[in-house]
Amino acid sequence: MLTAALRVYTWDRPTSSISSDRLEDAALPSLERALTVYRSMPGRSRGHVRNAARLALEGLRPDRVEPVVKLLEDAASYEWPTPRGWAERRVRVFEAAASRHPLLEEGAANAVLAETVGLVAPSHEEAVADLYADFPEFHVLRDFPRGYTADALRADYDLAQAQALLYSATHVTVEAQEDFKHILRYARLARLLHRLERAGDGYRFTLDGPNSILRRTRAYGVEFARFLAALVRTRDWRLTAEIELRKGWRPFIYRLSSDDGLGAGRAAAPVFDSSLEETFARRFGEERDGWRLLREAAVLETGRSLLVPDFVFRHEDGTEVLLEIVGYWTPEYLDEKFRKLRGVRAPNLIVAVPKALALRAGTLPAAVVPFARRLRVTDVLPKLEAFRGGGAS
C-alpha cells in the first residue's frame, strides 16, 4: 500500500465530494518504460534503479511519479547483507581516519579502508556503496517479475490510491447484492466491526471500529484500506465513505462501486466454498419445478453473530427457503456451526448434514436433510415443497 504522503486526489468543496486518482491510457507508455528499467537492472543498487525509473517516468504528471516508483519497489526483490557488524565496521574506519586527519594525500582514504576493513574499491562511489551496503539505498536489485505488465501496474496504482484515501475515512458503508459471506469474512479479517440492515434486494454493511462508538475517529483507515483490497474481488457492491482530510473539516463523500473496475486483473472471490456445494448447485440448475436457486442471498442473525446460508430458494409463488450445508470439517468448526444454527430464528430453514451428524442436528430449529457423500436434489425438493404447504419436518 501507499503512504498517505503519496496519495493523489481531487475534491470539490461545493458538492463535498472527493475522488482518488486514476491513470489514463496515456500513462501506459511511461509505465512500460519504468518497468523496462526494473527488468533490465538486476545487480544495481536500489538508489540507482529508482533514479533511472524516475527518469523513465518523466512523461507522467509529477505528483504521480513517486507513487508509481513505490509500487515498483514493492514488486521488486532486493538482497542485502545482514545488519550485524556493519555499524561497528564504519566506526573503525572513522576512528582510523580521525587519527590521521586530515587525509589530503591522494589515495589516503583508500588506504584507511584497506587497512581497517580490507575494503578495496576502484572508485569512490563503489567504496561508499560497500561501506554502507546495509543501507536500503545500496541494497542490490535481485529480481523483478517478468509478467508484471503496464496494465497490471496501472490497476495496482488505481487501487492503491483508493486505499490511501480511505486512511482518512471516519465512516464506511457498503451496499451489496451478492457475496455477503465474503464481505463479512473480509470485514472480520480486517478487524472491523459491522452492522447490518436490509437495503432493497441486498444488504447495507456499516463498518467501523471499537472506538467509533465513543467518538469520530480516523483510527481505522488502514483497516478500511485492507478491506477494500478484498472487497474489489466481489460482485455488485457500492461503497460510500466519509473522508476527513483535516481535523475539524467538514467530511467529503467518497464513492466507489464494482463498476469502477478496481478489481481488474484480480481473482474473483470463489463462488463456492466446497465441491459439495458446487456439485449440488450444478445438479439443481438455476431453476427447477418453479424454484429459483440463489447463492448466499440472505444473512441471518444468530444471537451475537451472523450466518450466511449457502443457498436461497425462491419459488414463483413467493415462498423463500434457506439451505445451509454442513460439510466434513474439524470438530471446532462443527461446534461453532451448530452453535450458530441453534441461534437461528428463521422459519424456512433446511440444514443438510452428513449422516454421522444427523442425530446431533435433530435438535436444531430447522428441517434436516442427511446425506452420504453428496447432497441429492431429490432429497431436498420434498423439503422445499413442504414449506409451500406451511411447514416442514
Could you describe the 3D structure shown?
By secondary structure, the chain is α+β, with helices and mostly antiparallel strands. It is built from 13 helices and 17 strands. Helix 1 (about 30-40) packs antiparallel against helix 2 (about 45-55). The longest helix has 16 residues, at about 150-165. It is elongated and about 100 Å long.
List keywords for this structure.
37% helix; Trna Endonuclease, Chain: A, domain 1; alpha+beta; 13 helices; 393 residues; elongated; 6-stranded mixed β-sheet
Helix fraction bin: 25-40%
* Mean pLDDT, all residues: 88
Walk across the major sheet and give the strand order. Answer: 1-2-9-8-5-7-6
Straight-line N-to-C gap: 52 Å
Please outline the major beta sheet: 7 strands, mixed
Return the string of H and E elements: EEHHHEHHHEHEHEEHEEHEEEEEEHEHEH
SS field, number of helical segments: 13
Q: Any idea of the CATH class of the domain at 275-388?
A: Alpha Beta
CATH fold type of the domain at 275-388: Trna Endonuclease, Chain: A, domain 1
Uncertain segments: none
CA radius of gyration is 29 Å
Instruction: Give the structural class.
Output: alpha+beta
Which word captures the global form?
elongated
Percent strand equals 15-25%
DSSP strand count: 17
CATH architectural type of the domain at 275-388: 3-Layer(aba) Sandwich
